[in-house]
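Dear colleague,

Thank you for sharing your sequence with our group. We've completed the structure prediction you requested, and as agreed, I am returning the results in plain text so they can be pasted directly into your records. Please verify that the sequence below matches your submission; if there's any discrepancy, let me know and we will rerun it promptly.
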Amino acid sequence: MIWETTRACDLACVHCRASAQAFRDPRELTTGEAFAMIDSLRGFGRPIFVLTGGDPLKRPDIRELAAHAMEAGLPTALSPSGTPLLTRGRLEPIARAGMRTISVSVDGSSAEVHDAFRGVPGSFGWSLAGIQAARELGFDVQINTTVSRHNLADLPAIADLVARVGATRWSVFFLVPTGRGRASDMVSPEEGERVLQWLYELSKTAPFHIKTTEAQHYRRIAIEREAEERGLTPREELDRSRTAGGRFLPGINSGNGFLFISHVGEIEPSGFLPVPAGNVRTDDVATVYRDHPLFRGLRDSERLEGRCGRCPYRVVCGGSRARAYAVTGDWFAEDPACLYRPSEDATPLAV
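Please find the predicted structure tokens below.
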């Protein structure tokens, strides 16, 4: 469950999904409305809950929101921007509320690369200072990096930086051209495949965990590589990893194990697939997720089209529905970032 607490942010990132602005929107959820929305999320059990933005530190009630989410029993994380607001003084009350997970974006191994991407000089230094403060306060730190033409060659150096700052996880995001993001900034399918193969190798030795965002086809690569290393078929590896603790990740995708709530309360499959199916001010979040035709359709792998519809990995991968929508206007279309060419009669590895 990702909540866009605000669209206000002091950065001007070239890829920003939200096209973030300098000032808060008066239509944002109030503190009381946010408390009610947080309580309603218990209808899912104990979902992971992320406070994102814009920059959530632009909300003066962020400590109260974090505390309420923790009191509600939700595993909660904060995703602030690398600005002068990201300080020990701002993070300490949130830590006292019980939160212990934070993610910070680092899109270059140097100020030159990162600040050009983030649109504001100084962001690199503010991000690293915030990461250090978070670690001193006992937070587990995740580094988020968006792969684009701006930093493709810098990824190995960024990985070294992730290790040096002591992050526990590196989340590598493949650009979706929505908001300020442009299709021309995306890496090619061939370049993306090389990055994912490299990430698989790095995952064997890195002192941090690696996950991908909007690169669902990494699951295909992981299954194929581990199957080859163990002398198994991909189907056998999939069965093994599900029962023996392997690195298989479930088929989380927009609207499938994932839900986004906008700054004005709209219930969407993803921030990168900004199609409202309801609003928390009038609708029950769990009911929308479980029953709305948009969400039910996104969870039906039989509705996928093109190469994704024929792919044997369509249940465990499914391709980026957000990228398919951003590029083609059809969330069932094939993912243009994947180069895999399945046979015409491929059967799914899992049902």
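Summary note from our side: DSSP finds 13 helices and nine strands in the chain.

Kind regards,
the structure core
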